[in-house]
Sequence to fold (167 residues):
Amino acid sequence: MCQDKIVKRQAPGKKFMRMVIQRVREACVTVSGSTTGSIRKGLLVFLGICRSDTTADADYLLDKLLGLRIFADEQGKMNLSLRESGGALLIVSQFTLYADCRKGRRPSFDLAAPPEQAQTLYNHFVEYARQGPVPVETGVFQAMMQVQLVNDGPVTILLDSEDCAKR
Fold:
């Protein structure tokens, strides 16, 4: 029943770029014992790219991400954007956001973009982010990474580019 509702919301065959956003006090990524990205206050972003994603999806999500008012103002209300709070971004590619666990016990990742396509869109997202107003750090695409973080709140938000398709 739940799947029927999801299918009705989406355009036939279209899946959407996904992000899991965590507001953090600090976060870092290490690969083979070396730190590849590290931030203090900011957002840790896990970015999932599927086969049907385009640069328009990436651009939309980054603009949305940078404008989210999820940091506390002087009154303690979530009213400030990442830029206004003086935070940074740590962007980590994560194809497992497209895990399909409906059949059996082993997840299928068929919806995830193939590595070449995903890396192109991931690089586009990162480069577009680096043109913006906040510092940007990253993990290493396709590497086995260890991610450490101290959640702030905790505040965890799921965001996808479906809204862009509706506009």
Q: What stands out?
A: Confidence is low (pLDDT under 50) at residues 1-12. The chain has one domain: 16-166.
